[in-house]
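Intended use. Records like the one below are meant for learning the mapping from a protein sequence to its folded structure. Do not use them to infer anything beyond what is encoded.
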Amino acid sequence: MESPAIIRNPKGVPPNQAAIVIDGLAALTSALATNKTLKSRLEQCEAEQRELVKSCDLDDETALLKIIKAEVLIRILPDRAWISSSTVKTSAADLLKACHAFISGQLAPLLSDLRQRTKADNSAMEEIAAMDRIVIIQHETPVEISTIGDFSVAEYARQLIACWKKAQTLLANLSTNSHAP
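Structure written out for the chain above:
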């Protein structure tokens, strides 16, 4: 007999959509960190160059090489940051698409199943309603954006995964309780 905790989608959606969301979240987090590092490094190079230009000994080759290095980095880093920003936008859009697929393929069917199983349990229904409020945002969110309401796509993905884990736990508890003597 199949475990009741595993929800099979009749459309044949693969059961690894949560993993796709988690991987997408990791990719977006990495892209955001890279972008932040590049911007910080650019600010640091600009400040260092200003200080070196003001105070270095023009006969000191090491100081002049530092100025040249800072100048080269100041010219390169904005392009790298632009590329990184583009990667962030793409990663955010990909993550949002994965979130939408996860909701329709796994999370919504799971919540629907939970609603059917817990109609008499008010506390469970309240938990499911709270999860539904997070899920419903998908219908209002175009894929081209990087923020949803007051939080980022990354935070949205984290909340969806948390909902999914909570729903899985609730389903497991219901299954355990239904088999109890």
